[in-house]
C-alpha cells in the first residue's frame, strides 16, 4: 500500500452525552479528531502507511492526542512537539429539526504557532505517493498557512499527488481571506474536493439551483467543475451533495469530473444519523484509497460515498470501517442484518 501524508490540527473534542444541550451537560464525552487526522485514520484502516503531520504540546494531553492516532495505526513520526496547548472544540449533537452546534476553543494551539523549521519536509515526503490537506489548516493562522505552503512546494518537488478538501469554516476566516490564501495554493493541487458552499466561498465558483434542499442540477455542477478545472488545472474535481431533511436524516451522494467524464454516484438515504462530524473526512479518505486502488473514477467515487455513509453511523470523529465493510455496502448490502 501507499505512503500517504496528511497535515493539519488534531483537537480534543468534548461532546455532550447523547443529544443533550450544552446548558444541560454535567459531563462531556472525550474524542480526538480533526480534518486531516480523520483522513489519516481512514487510510490506516484501509492498510496504507498513513502519516500525520502536526505540532502538539509535550504534556499529557498532547500525548493523549498522539496516542489516539497510534491506536489506529497512524504514524506520528512527523508530529513536532512543543507549544502550550491542544485546540479544543465542543460539540452539541442535534436531533430532528434541531441542528448540531460546534464551539471552538483553539486559539494559540501548538499548530497555530508552528514554524516551517519544525518540519523536515524533504524527509516527510520521501517515498510518499499522496499528500492531503484541507482549507482548515491555512485558516488556523498565518503561521500554519506558511507551513502548509512550504509543505506543498516540497510535495510537488517530490512528485507527490496532492488532494485538497476545501472545507470552508466561517468561524475561522472570511470568504475574502479564504480566496486570497487558497487560490494561490491551488496550483499545487491535483484532486480538489468540496461541496457547493466550499467551492463558492473558497474559490468563487457557484452552482445553480437550491443547494440547501439538495435540488441542484448535475449539469450545473458539470459546468462549474469544468470552469474550476480550467482555472486551476485540477486532474479531478469532486463534490459531495448532502440533502439535509433534518439533523438526523440526510441524503448523500457525490460527483466527480476528470475533464472527460462526469460521474454521479448512487444516493444513500441516511436515517438516523448517529454522528455526521467527520463525514466529509471519511469521504476524502475513501476517495484517496479509491483513486489509488480502483480501475476508474466511478469505482473510486462509489467507494468514497459508501465509506462516508457508514461513518454517519459511528460516534466520534473517525471512520472505523474496513475495506471489506465498505465494499459490502457498495455491492448493495445495506439491510443492516446481523452478520453471523
Structural write-up:
The protein has helices spanning 35-45, 60-70, 121-124, 136-140, 142-157, 175-185, 196-203, 218-232, 279-293, 297-311, 323-330; strands at residues 3-7, 11-15, 29-33, 49-56, 79-81, 88-92, 101-105, 130-134, 161-165, 191-194, 209-210, 215-216, 236-246, 249-257, 262-264, 268-270. Strands 1, 4, 5, 8, 9, 10, 13, 14, 15 and 16 form a 10-stranded mixed sheet that branches. It starts with a strand and ends in a 10-residue tail after the last helix. It is globular, with a radius of gyration of 19 Å. It has 11 helices and 16 strands. It is an alpha/beta fold.
Shape: globular
Report the helical percentage.
25-40%
Assembly type of the shown chains? single chain
Question: How much β-strand is present in the residues?
Answer: 15-25%
Gyration radius (Cα, Å) is 19 Å
If helices are DSSP runs of H or I spanning 4 or more residues, what is the number of helices? 11
- The tally of strands reads 16
Write the layout of secondary structure elements.
Elements: E1 3-7, E2 11-15, E3 29-33, H1 35-45, E4 49-56, H2 60-70, E5 79-81, E6 88-92, E7 101-105, H3 121-124, E8 130-134, H4 136-140, H5 142-157, E9 161-165, H6 175-185, E10 191-194, H7 196-203, E11 209-210, E12 215-216, H8 218-232, E13 236-246, E14 249-257, E15 262-264, E16 268-270, H9 279-293, H10 297-311, H11 323-330
Parallel strand pairs: 1-4, 1-8, 2-6, 4-5, 8-9, 9-10, 10-13
Antiparallel strand pairs: 2-3, 6-7, 11-12, 13-14, 14-15, 14-16
Helix pairs in contact: 1-9, 9-10, 10-11
Amino acid at each position: 500500500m501507499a505512503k500517504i501524508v496528511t497535515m493539519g490540527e488534531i483537537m480534543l473534542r468534548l461532546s455532550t452525552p447523547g443529544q443533550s444541550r450544552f446548558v444541560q451537560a454535567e459531563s462531556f464525552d472525550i474524542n480526538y479528531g480533526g480534518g486531516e487526522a480523520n483522513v489519516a485514520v481512514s487510510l490506516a484502516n484501509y492498510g496504507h502507511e498513513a502519516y500525520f503531520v502536526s505540532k502538539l504540546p509535550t504534556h499529557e494531553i498532547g500525548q493523549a492526542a498522539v496516542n489516539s492516532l497510534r491506536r489506529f495505526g497512524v504514524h506520528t513520526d512527523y508530529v513536532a512537539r512543543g507549544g502550550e496547548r491542544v485546540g479544543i472544540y465542543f460539540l452539541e449533537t442535534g436531533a430532528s429539526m434541531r441542528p448540531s452546534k460546534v464551539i471552538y476553543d483553539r486559539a494559540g494551539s501548538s499548530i497555530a504557532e508552528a514554524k516551517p523549521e519544525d518540519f523536515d519536509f524533504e524527509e516527510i515526503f520521501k517515498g510518499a505517493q499522496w499528500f492531503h490537506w484541507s482549507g482548515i489548516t491555512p485558516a488556523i493562522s498565518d503561521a500554519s498557512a506558511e507551513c502548509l505552503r512550504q509543505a506543498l512546494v516540497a510535495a510537488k518537488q517530490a512528485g507527490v499527488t496532492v488532494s485538497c478538501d476545501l472545507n470552508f469554516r466561517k468561524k475561522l476566516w472570511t470568504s475574502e481571506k479564504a480566496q486570497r490564501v487558497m487560490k494561490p495554493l491551488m496550483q499545487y493541487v491535483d484532486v480538489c474536493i468540496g461541496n457547493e458552499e466550499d467551492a463558492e466561498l473558497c474559490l468563487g465558483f457557484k452552482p445553480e439551483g437550491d443547494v440547501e434542499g439538495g435540488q441542484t442540477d448535475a449539469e450545473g455542477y458539470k459546468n462549474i467543475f469544468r470552469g474550476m478545472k480550467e482555472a486551476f488545472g485540477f486532474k479531478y474535481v469532486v463534490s459531495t451533495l448532502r440533502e439535509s431533511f433534518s439533523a438526523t436524516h440526510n441524503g448523500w451522494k457525490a460527483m466527480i469530473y476528470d475533464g472527460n467524464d462526469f460521474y454521479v454516484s448512487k444516493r444513500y438515504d441516511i436515517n438516523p444519523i448517529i454522528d455526521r462530524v467527520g463525514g466529509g473526512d471519511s469521504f476524502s479518505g475513501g476517495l484517496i484509497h479509491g483513486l489509488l486502488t480502483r480501475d476508474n473514477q466511478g469505482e473510486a467515487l462509489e467507494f468514497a460515498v459508501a465509506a462516508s455513509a457508514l461513518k454517519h453511523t459511528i460516534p466520534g470523529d473517525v471512520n472505523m470501517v474496513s475495506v471489506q465493510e465498505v465494499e459490502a455496502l457498495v455491492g448493495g448490502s445495506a439491510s443492516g442484518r446481523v452478520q453471523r
